[in-house]
Fold each of these.
Amino acid sequence: QVQLVESGGGLVQAGGSLRLSCAASGRTFRDSAMGWFRQATGKEREFVAATVGSYGRTYYADYGDSVKGRFTISRDDAKNAVYLQMNSLKPEDTAVYYCAADNRIGNYYSAAHYEYWGQGTQVTVSS
C-alpha cells in the first residue's frame, strides 16, 4: 500500500520560513512526478511545485506563479522523499499543503494527474 506522509506544517509569521517534508512508502518514485499542491478554505486545489524526471538524471523543477522565487522543491531518491522549502511566506500562502506522486510525468501541474496523495499539512502565515 502506497502512503505519502507530510510533515513540517505550522504557524509562522509573515516573512518567515517553513520546510515541508513528504515521505513515500510502499513504492519508489524514481521515474516520476512528485509535487506539492495547496488548498485554501473555499478555494480550489492549486499547483505549487513539482519535480519530474528519471532516476540518475537531473530532475526538472517547476513552480506555480505565486510561489516562484520563494519556494524550492527538492527530492531525495535514497529516502523516497520530497521537500518544499518555503521562504518569505505571506498570509496568502495559508492553506493545507498536499504532497502528491505519480509514476508518469505528463501534466504534472494538474491535480488530476496524480494517483497518490498525502493527508495534508496545515500552513498558517500570520500578518
Amino acid sequence: QLQLVESGGGLVQPGGSLRLSCTTSGFTLDYYAIGWFRQAPGKEREGVSCISSSGGSTAYADSVKGRFTISRDNAKNTVYLQMNSLKPEDTAVYYCAADRYIVFRRCLVREEYDGWGQGTQVTVSP
C-alpha cells in the first residue's frame, strides 16, 4: 500500500522559501516516480514538478521553473521540493504522488498517479 506524508508547509512572506518533504512507506521508493501537485481554492489540482525513480530526470511547470527544485533521497524514503522566491500565487495545498509505471513525459498529469498524500498547506502572504 502506497503511503505518502507531506510536511514542511506553512506561512511565508513573498520572496521567502520553504522546503516540502514527502515521506513514503509501504513500498520501495527506488522504483517509483514522484510528482508534486498543488491545488488552490476553486482551482483544479495542477502538476508542479516531478522526478524519475532514479532522480536522473526532472520536470517543472513553467510557473515554477527557476524557483523550485525537486530532489530525492531514496535511502531516506523521502522526496523534497525546495521552493524559493515564493509568490502569493503559489498559495495552495501541496500534494505528493507516486507511480511505478508512469511515462515520464506525462509526469505532471495527475491522472497518471496511483498513490497520494493528504497534502500540506502553503500560504504566501505579507
Amino acid sequence: QVQLVESGGGLVQAGGSLRLSCAASTRTFYSASMGWFRQAPGKEREFVAGIHWRGESTYYADSVKGRFTVGKNNNNNTAYLQMNSLKPEDTAVYYCAATLTFSGPYAVARADYEYEYWGQGTPVTVSS
C-alpha cells in the first residue's frame, strides 16, 4: 500500500508560482512513476504532468508545457510539481498519483486508470 500526501497549494496571483509536493510512504518509491492531475470545479479530472520511475522521461499536458516542471526525489520519497506563470485557468484541486505497475506503450502514464494510488488533493487558486 502506498500513501500519498500533497502539500503546497494555496492562493496566488496570476503570473506567480507555486511548488506542490507529494510525500510517499513506500519503500518502493524508486520504482514508482508519478503523475499529477487536476480537477477544476464542474470539470472532469485531467492529466497535468508525469515522470517515469527512473526519471528519464517526463510528459506534460499541452496546457502546462513550458510552465510546469515535474520531478521526483528518491532520497526523500517525494515528487514535486513546480508551477510558474500561473493562470486563472490553472485553478483546480491538484492530485498526486503513483503507479508501480504501469508498462504501457509509452514511457509515462497519462491516464488516471493507469495509476493505482492517489493523494487527497491540494487546492490551487489563481486570481486574476
